[in-house]
Structure formats: structure tokens, C-alpha cells
Amino acid sequence: MMRSLYSGVSGLKTHQTRMDVIGNNIANVNTVAYKSSSMTFSELMYQTTQSATGANAATGRAGINAKQIGLGVVGGAISANITTAGATQTTGNPFDIRITGDSFFVVSSGTENYFTRAGAFYVDGQGNLAMTTNGYTVMGWEEDPTAPGTIRKDTVTALKIMSAENMTSSPEATTQAYITGIIDKNSDGLISDKGQAINMVFYDNLGYSYTAKYAVTKYMMTERATEADMTTQMVRADGTPLYYNNVDDMNAAKAAGSNAGLKLVDNETGYPACYFPGEEFMVATPPGSTTYAPNTEKNRKGELPEGTYRLELTDILNSEGVSLKEVYGTTDLTSVVTIDGGTDNEIFLQYSTKGGEFQGYYQDYDYATQSGGALIPTDQMTDNKFNMTFKTAAHDNFSEEGIEVSMKTSTMYDNKGTSTVTAVYGDYDGNYAGRKLGEMSGVAIETNGKIWASYDNGTKKLLGQIAVATFANPSGLEKQGENLYSETQNSGAFDGIGVEVDADGGSMSTGVLEMSNVDLSSEFTEMITTQRGFQANSRIITVSDTLIEELVNLKR
Asked: Using a CB cutoff of 8 Å and minimum separation of 24, what contacts does 427-430 make?
């Protein structure tokens, strides 16, 4: 009877412990990422009153089982259901993170690392990503300083995502730009004296912005054909350039009324078409004749028929009475000029900025395709590009190479008299565009834990990556309260570095949290059975007490 009393007591104690576990589960039904626990019972011990015996062949008696009396129950194990995920709770807080898979966030108290599934985080006054409940900092990896945009996986450190240096994005100088759109040769801007206006904003390496003002105008052969322009396009048969080094003689001849200068001759018929005395442009009237008159309209469209022409020197006499033709000889002139009837497709581009060098560039559009992608190379523009350079003394915040401006994507078509040409800083992919000083405008956390900052100058910066820890036996972790776990010998050790969350197929989601995995229906059922077990064990004690009472009453 005394044994039954103590068995009943052990049953009461054990069921009370089980009720404590159930009560804790129900109490934490709304705790973020709480993992429910369950308790299993184990027999306490047995008193053997008679040991078992084996069969005796000699006597013919069978074996007898042992006689044992149990002495109660004890709690066998209390296990946390860590591997079962809780439901998802939407919060809308961008720093609330739900983690899937079997991994854990790594957080630090400053002296020791802990592990948690509760991703309710915030950013403190120093810019640290931390737990809202206790201020423990979230651990991860930093950006590799030698390879921007990549992570250097090393011993985890506190993620200071909103430190002073991360709140701004460094400015960048513009190094490339391009002019794109349609140039309609009949648009009002193009035929005006001021030309088609284009503005382009660009930056120096301190983030100061500037505006380059461009003017796109028609630039005719008449305006380009001075003796300096034309002679630099001519070479002798041996490849050496041919220059007029006796311009004074030409000007003197012009003043005396002599028709001196360069002569444009039809390459097939040999008929003269026009010539250039000094800076004045003369045309043959009618074309092919030997009578010349000044081209006062400065527009040779229609004046010259299509064809191939060569440049020749006219019979001008120098101060010594020798003609330039005899000095240089016409047979040495190997340059050939092709007139395709589309010379008004030739565009002159000029720009000027405060402190910048004034420069001009010729953009020749292919007459057949009208495409900027098939440009006729000029002596001032190479591969459809030119450089916008600056005076070093005034603008030492730009590179010496200046800004490379491309016209590759510009075209010339009939666009109903409207030119849509515009200037864009940066290359075709948006790189090398230059930036002002950027202020942080947002933070985003990717599913792999990488944290990116966005800035109002259009740039993004990798701030770090949240690391996670995995264990061979997650259930072996020891609960420390405040949604924290610590490693034990039976859980496996944390190596101090961690892994990426997707290493085991997991991911991170922002704006949501993992809820408790407590199942109230199961807990209530367990509570009922526990109550009945406690009730039954209490009956053991009362009945045993009654038996003892009857025994005591024998003396009456």
C-alpha cells in the first residue's frame, strides 16, 4: 500500500509537469516563431520480488517470469517541435523577416552568439539591424571592398546597414553620353540660324551638375569649302599632305581679279563644275560651263549633278610668275570628292559650356540609308563619336579624356518637319552616366538575405547579407528564453561563419513573420488526458489511504 501511495504521488508530479508544458505552449500561442514542446513519460523503477527462472529439463518444470512491482512514473523527455514551421503573419514592416527551411538567424548579445527563428527586427540609432525584443544585433557578412557588389564570406559581424557611410552614395563623373532621335532636315529648328537646340545634363566627380547646350544645324559645302578645309583633304601620290603654303599669292590674285584657287572637275568628263577662290564659293553657270558666279545663297543643292569629282588647282601665278598648278601639279592630287545629291544631309554639331572648349563636329549621314549607324568618317569624328573636353584649370574634376559623345543611334528621316533628337548622358545601358551625391531612399532585402540600399541618384549599393546557421540536430538546441537558442553538444557547433539561407532550399521573406506552431486542438486534447491522468493518480492516493485506514481500524 505504501508503494501505491508513492506511485500515485509520482503520477501526480509527472502529470503536473506535463500540464506545465501544455500551459507554456498555450501561453505562447501568439509568440513569434515559438516552437511547441511535448512531454513523454517513462517508468520510474521496479522492485523485483522474485527473479525469473528457466525451464528445468531434469524435473520437467517450466520457467517462471520475474515478479516486479512498479514504483511510479517519471518524465522521460521534453522535446521542442523545431522542424515544424508556424503559419505566416503579415506585418508590412520591411525589417520583419520570415525564414523558411531548418536554418536560424544568428544574433549577438555583444559577447556571445545566439540563434533564433524570430525575425522581428528594426534598425537602431547606430544603424544596426537588431531584434526588437532585446536589441541583440543581427549577424551577417559585409560587401567585399575589392569587388563591389559581391559578398565576402568571413566570420559574421553585426550588420550596420544604416551607418553614416551607407546613408549616401558617392557622386560619379559622366564619362559617356549619346545623341539619339530623328533629325528632320526640314524642321524649323534645323533650318534656323540658331539650329536645333539640345541640352544635356552631366556631372563632375564631385556631383556638381552642368548643362551642355548643343546646336544641330545644316552645314553646306559652301560654308565648309575654304582653302584650309579643302586642301587638307588632298594628298600627293606619295601620301604626303598637300597644303597651300602661299595663301598670300592666292589672295593677291583674287584682289587682282584672277580666278584663283581650287577647281572641282567632273572625274569622268573633265568638265569644271565650280572652284573656290579664297573663302568665296563659286559655281559653274550653267553646270559644266567655264563661266563662274558667286553662290550667294550658300546652298549648292541642285547646283551640281550627281557624280564623282576631283579637286584641281587653277592656273594662278604666284609672285614669281609661276602657277601653283606647275608648282604642285594636278596629277599628284589623288583625293576624290563624291557628290551624291544629298549634301544637305551633312550635319554640323557644335557645343559650348561654361568653362568648356568650343568645338564643332561634322556628322555625315549616309545618303542611301539616312542612318547614323553608317556614318561617313570625317576628320573630326571617329566611329560616330567625339569627345567633349574641358579646360583643365577650370574643370579639374573631369577626366582629361572628357566625355565621349556618340551619335550612333541618331537617324535622319522625314518626320513631318519635326526633329526629336535629344542628348542622353550615359551609355546605352545606363552606365557611365555620372551621378550627383545620392541620399538613401530605401532598403530592400532579397530572398537570399542580401541587403540593398537605393539612392535618389539612381544607384544601388550592397550593404551586406544576413547569414544563417544550420545544425545537425536542431532539436538539440537549448532554449534560452526571448526566442533564443544556444548550441549544445547534442545540436552540433556553429562554425562562426554560417551559410546562405538557400543552401538548404530555404529563403527569406520581408514584411511577414513566422507565427507559433502551437496547435490548440492538440494542446486541449493533451490537457484533457493530462487532467484525467492527474485525477486517476489522485484516486490511487485516496484509495490507498482508505486501505490504510481499514488496516488501522483492525485494532478496534
From this structure: 427/176, 427/178, 428/178
pLDDT tens for the chain, 556 residues long, are 678 888 888 999 999 999 999 999 999 999 999 999 999 998 888 888 888 888 988 888 898 898 888 888 988 899 999 888 999 999 999 999 999 999 999 999 999 999 999 999 999 989 999 999 999 999 999 998 888 889 999 999 999 999 888 899 888 888 888 888 888 877 887 777 677 788 888 888 888 887 777 777 664 332 333 333 322 233 333 444 333 334 444 444 445 444 345 565 666 666 655 544 443 444 445 544 545 454 444 333 334 455 555 555 555 444 455 554 554 444 333 334 333 333 333 333 433 333 333 344 444 444 444 444 334 444 455 666 777 766 544 456 777 777 888 877 887 778 888 888 888 888 777 777 888 899 999 999 999 999 999 998 888 899 999 999 999 999 999 999 999 999 999 999 999 999 999 988 899 999 999 999 999 999 999 999 999 999 999 998 888 888 888 888 887 6
Closest of 220, 206, 199, 223 to residue 352, by C-alpha: 199
Bridge partners (DSSP) of residue 115 are 106, 485
Question: Which pTM value belongs to this model?
Answer: 0.62
Residue 229 to residue 47: CA distance in whole angstroms: 120
* DSSP string of 6-36, one letter each residue: HHHHHHHHHHHHHHHHHHHHHHTTTSTT---
In degrees to the nearest 10, what's the CA dihedral of 120, 123, 124, 125? Answer: -160
